[in-house]
């Protein structure tokens, strides 16, 4: 196995991590931004106020895209395992 293959495998793994985590991170970012703007507009400085809306939004997002995330990760893992024999030669 040469360095190009190792770099390629690492790049694919990082891309898969970004792809799988992106929906949850984007939803948390948007909800946090909205709550932050509302807190700034109403001068409510309660740190725990954003926790429940973020938790609900992430739960809804996970229920919507969770099956896609698992399917994508299983497909990647299956492809990686099928690639093992060619990596050892």
Q: Look at the structure and give the mean pLDDT.
A: 92
Largest sheet: none
Structure summary, number of beta strands: 0
- What's the gyration radius in Å? 19 Å
How far from one another are the termini? 7 Å
Unreliable spans? none
Residues in helix, %: over 70%
How much of the residues is beta strand, in percent? under 5%
Give an overview of the whole structure.
This protein is mainly alpha-helical and 89 residues long. It is 88% helix and 0% strand. α1 runs antiparallel to α2. It is elongated. The model has no long low-confidence stretch (mean pLDDT 92).
Could you write a compact summary of the structure shown?
By secondary structure, the chain is an all-alpha fold.
Overview features:
mainly alpha; 2 helices; elongated
What layout of secondary structure does this protein have?
Elements: H1 3-42, H2 51-88
